[in-house]
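User: I've been trying to design a sequence by hand for this structure and keep getting stuck. Would you show me what you'd pick, starting by listing the structure so we're on the same page?

Assistant: Good idea, let's start from the same input. This is the structure you sent:
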């Protein structure tokens, strides 16, 4: 094939337009049905009456972006299938999120997850945490739009400006007018398209090679099927330890305390339904992860004798999946369009989730307190709704702006994604200190948060870092591809000597959140022992609803015993005022 020729036909564009049109129409439908988005409860929380299954799909789609689809497939092509072990950590830590963190947020019933931090510690903690969340999500939204646009522009002929604007404007439209209901239902539609895109790649490879077994045989011959790496060394990029521990912390930072996901839990009627949605998210998330991983092996089965990155057919391994699609399926009308629609859908679902959640955080954490302080009376329901929609629209515009700035700043891509992970661990740490202990106080946990973020960012951006060791690739069969005129028998392999690098810079990227979490917990807890609690914090630790269920039961029992003793003391005249609030 000639990659310089137009790769997108009329049928491909038609499929893509239909997908974008359907997403928009879902937003229109929910604007003019039900309560017609007349309250912030309906706009931001879908009236708390959503079924569990759409919420389960949305939980998956919120963070399975186009970057994930392109990145996971290239990960398995380049480094092998060891990465699939991370799905075990999702199952293990789903239990932790569902039965420890989630009940606390349901007791609180607050639109913003960071309202918990104010009730437990104070306004300063709430503001700092929500600002960190806003910062990471604004950057991430821009990257989610920009990264796939680069890959698609290079291979399909779709201009990156058109790609960014198409996804961004459609997303802003249905998120702004349709609210959370539109976001959830479009996530279901877009999730199915994500599966269709990945499965189309696998199906094409099976037809080409004749069977799944042949794809696996080629991958095994190329050293891509190793999965039993139990090396405890934290500097090894992917092992069972890094994937279970590091993947688990990443999962909790997203699914236990992240505003985007907490807001989705609160769209259902009760705690049991939310837990059910979270448990169903696991097989859906795992199925997409496994199929995307296998698609990497499917792509390898075609290019195992001619690596497109080595031959500079593409600039990076993230473009492998789009290259495979246009190379293997470009001749089938509409199939390339279906794939691109799946990639666009992955971006749509992630950006719409972020826009709606950022609007909720901004209204609840910044705007309402400032409004009440300035006007000395609370913001009305009608005004809150109007301002929520306006803020959602503005965040969509900011998302587009960041996406366009990314092409100028270049290195901000990896930097932004690293910040996204590095901040998640410390934020998980302060929620954990608040929910799992009564000793933690505001001054202590803020020191812990600063220490955790500083350590994570130091590990993330400290230089120089050793390049990851890649599995061998071959270019000896490149004469078989019509878009290349080069034939060579060279086999390349990257095995860098990293003995001279500083140890902390060699630690697996999956441990960034782990180190940030541990640092936040240790510094936060020890520092809290050095500071005295404020009066509001003293009152907070007497509220069982602010703690995980086991500790909540102990606090409730202790409070009831104290009330019983006080009542008895009043009856016999031996009452003595006591104020003992220390539990841990």
């Amino acid at each position: 094939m000639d990659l310089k020729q137009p790769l997108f036909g009329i049928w491909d564009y038609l499929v893509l337009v239909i997908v974008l049109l359907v997403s928009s129409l879902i937003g229109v439908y929910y604007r003019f049905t039900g309560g017609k988005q007349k309250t912030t409860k309906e706009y931001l929380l879908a009236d708390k009456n959503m079924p569990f299954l759409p919420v389960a799909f949305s939980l998956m789609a919120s963070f399975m972006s186009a970057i994930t689809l392109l990145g996971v497939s290239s990960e398995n092509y380049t480094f092998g299938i060891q990465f699939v072990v991370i799905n075990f950590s999702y199952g293990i830590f789903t239990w932790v999120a569902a039965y420890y963190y989630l009940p606390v947020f349901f007791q609180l019933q607050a639109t913003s997850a960071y309202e918990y931090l104010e009730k437990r510690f104070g306004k300063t903690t709430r503001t700092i945490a929500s600002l960190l969340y806003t910062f990471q999500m604004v950057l991430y939204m821009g990257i989610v739009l920009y990264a796939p646009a680069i890959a698609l522009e290079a291979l399909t002929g779709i201009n990156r400006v058109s790609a960014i604007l198409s996804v961004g404007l459609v997303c802003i439209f249905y998120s702004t007018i349709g609210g959370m209901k539109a976001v959830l239902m479009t996530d279901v539609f877009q999730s199915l398209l994500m599966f269709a895109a990945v499965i189309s790649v696998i199906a094409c490879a099976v037809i080409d090679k004749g069977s799944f077994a042949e794809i696996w045989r080629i991958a095994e011959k190329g050293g891509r099927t190793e999965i039993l790496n139990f090396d405890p060394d934290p500097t090894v990029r992917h092992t069972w330890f890094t994937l279970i521990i590091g993947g688990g912390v990443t999962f909790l930072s997203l699914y236990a305390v992240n505003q985007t996901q907490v807001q989705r839990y609160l769209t259902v009627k009760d705690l049991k339904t939310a837990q059910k949605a979270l448990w169903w998210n696991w097989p859906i998330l795992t199925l997409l992860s496994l199929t995307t991983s296998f698609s990497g092996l499917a792509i390898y089965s075609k290019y195992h004798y001619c690596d497109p990155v080595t031959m500079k057919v593409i600039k990076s391994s993230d473009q492998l999946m789009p290259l495979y699609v246009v190379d293997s399926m470009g001749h089938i009308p509409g199939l390339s369009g279906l794939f691109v629609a799946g990639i666009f859908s992955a971006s749509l679902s992630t950006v719409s989730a972020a826009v709606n959640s950022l609007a909720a955080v901004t209204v609840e954490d910044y705007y309402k307190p400032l409004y009440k302080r300035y006007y000395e009376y609370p913001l009305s329901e009608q005004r809150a709704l109007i301002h929520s929609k306006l803020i959602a629209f503005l965040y969509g515009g900011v998302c587009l702006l960041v996406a366009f700035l990314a092409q100028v700043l270049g290195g901000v891509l990896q930097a932004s994604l690293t910040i996204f992970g590095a901040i998640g661990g410390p934020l998980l740490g302060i929620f954990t200190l608040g929910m799992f202990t009564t000793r933690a106080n505001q001054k202590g946990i803020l020191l812990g948060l600063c220490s955790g973020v500083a350590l994570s960012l130091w590990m993330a951006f400290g230089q120089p870092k050793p390049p990851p060791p890649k599995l061998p690739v071959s270019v000896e069969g490149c004469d078989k591809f019509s878009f290349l005129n080069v034939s060579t028998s060279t086999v390349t392999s990257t095995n860098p000597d990293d003995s001279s690098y500083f140890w902390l810079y060699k630690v697996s990227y999956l441990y960034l959140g782990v180190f940030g979490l541990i640092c936040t917990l240790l510094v936060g807890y020890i520092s809290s022992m050095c500071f005295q609690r404020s009066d509001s914090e003293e009152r907070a630790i007497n509220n069982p609803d602010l703690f995980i269920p086991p500790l909540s039961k102990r606090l409730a029992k202790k409070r009831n015993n104290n009330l019983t003793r006080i009542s008895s003391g009043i009856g016999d005249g031996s009452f003595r005022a006591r104020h003992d609030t220390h539990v841990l």
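That's my pick for every position. To get oriented when you compare it with your attempt: Residues 160-209 form the longest helix (50 residues). The chain is about 70% helix and 0% strand.
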